[in-house]
Design a protein that fits this description.
The protein is an alpha+beta fold. It has seven helices and four strands, in the order αααβαααββαβ. Strand 2 and strand 3 (154-161) form a beta hairpin. The longest helix is centred in the N-terminal third of the chain and has 15 residues, at 46-60.
């Protein structure tokens, strides 16, 4: 038996796994970290990641690195394609956004009701409870629902493959993103 190869390959999207003790080289530059994040939140869809990365490059072309808050710029670039941001108390928007996001992998989540768009269900639903339901449902498909600290009265996040959990836990803080799973909401 031999030790695993710890050399970083930017093209494998961490497919060979990620050593949880490995630290991300914060000197790699924001652009390299953003690219890796986009690959993680667009599993199996490098075209979308590439399009979003192009939008990132366009938006940051004339800005100094200290002028850009990566998570907020990314939020605008990925919104309703690879991520979401909704008001804390807007259950309807949360169900709609997650339904839209998982549709790209041909998934349907079981919200525990026949019709998750039913007004009676949505009026009684609390976003933290829905976050837990979506998290559990996505885990059964091999995905993880993440949320990041917005510092506002909103909830924002994205979905990755569960096998990439450790990679995201390393990349997000390197970009200044306070991240947790939706199960921790």
């Amino acid at each position: 038996m031999h030790a695993p190869d710890r050399e970083f390959d930017p093209d494998d999207n961490y497919a060979s796994g990620f050593d949880h003790e490995m630290e991300v080289d914060e000197e790699a530059g924001t652009e390299a970290l953003v690219w890796q994040l986009l690959l993680l939140i667009n599993p199996g869809d490098e075209d979308t990641a590439m399009r979003q990365f192009g939008a990132w490059q366009d938006a940051t072309a004339d800005a100094r690195e200290d002028e850009v808050e990566p998570v907020w710029l990314l939020k605008d670039i990925i919104d309703w394609t690879s991520g979401f941001q909704i008001h804390d108390d807007d259950a309807a928007a949360f169900v709609e956004s997650i339904t839209e996001l998982v549709a790209r992998w041909n998934l349907e989540l079981d919200w525990g009701v026949e019709d998750p768009t039913d007004d009676e269900f949505l009026d009684a639903a609390r976003t933290p409870d829905l976050l837990h339901v979506a998290y559990d449902a996505l885990r059964s498909y091999g995905y993880t629902l993440w949320i990041w600290e917005t510092g506002t009265d909103t909830v924002a996040g994205w979905i990755t493959l569960s096998r990439d959990d450790e990679a995201l836990r390393a990349i997000a803080p390197a970009l200044g993103i306070e991240l947790r799973t939706a199960a921790q909401a």
